[in-house]
Structures are given as structure tokens and as C-alpha cells.
Amino acid sequence: MGRGRRGDRTHPQIRLLTLNDGSQLIGTIRKEDDETLEILLKADNQKRTLKWDEVNDTDRRGRPMLVGPPTWRSRRNSAPC
Largest alpha-carbon pair distance within the chain? Predict the structure, then answer.
């Protein structure tokens, strides 16, 4: 994917888009540039093109990234004793 306003992407990511009117869209961003983005909606598998001016916020969907020193992360991911 190209480098747009939101940085480099090496693979498609599920995003939650909040629009200026308060509505939300969930889908995969397929293409983006400095003015527009194309999203493949998860609900009905249709493509929709939006201008960045219409988008209020974007959030990545999925599990949160663990933050902390490597020893803490490895203990967090290991099975309980």
C-alpha cells in the first residue's frame, strides 16, 4: 500500500472509522492517498470511497499491543504456573 496520511502499511488492517456525522464504519482500507481513501466494508463487502475531510478519527481493530520491558511481555504471554 502507498504511503498516505496515516503512515506505511505492509498489509491490510481492519479499521474503525468515525465520520464527522458520528456514524462508524468497520472495514479494510484498500487504497489511500493524501485526499481520499477506499475502504472495503466488513458488513456488506462493498467498496466505499471517502475524503479524509469526512473522517473524524481512525482506530485499529483487534488485540492491543503489549507495551513494557521484554521480560514483562514474556511473562504475560506464558502459561500460568
Answer: 52
Q: Domain 14-77 belongs to what topology?
A: SH3 type barrels. (2.30.30)
For residue 72, give the amino acid letter. W
- 45-77 pLDDT, tens digit per residue, is 999 999 999 999 888 766 555 565 666 555 555
| Cβ contact 60:13 at 8 Å | yes
H or E element at residue 37: strand 36-41
Cα 17 from Cα 33, distance rounded (Å): 16
Long-range contacts of 64-69 (CB under 8 A, 24+ apart): none
Contact, 39 vs 55, CB < 8 A? no
Q: What is the reported pTM?
A: 0.58
Q: Where are the domains of the chain?
A: 14-77
Cell of 5: 496520511
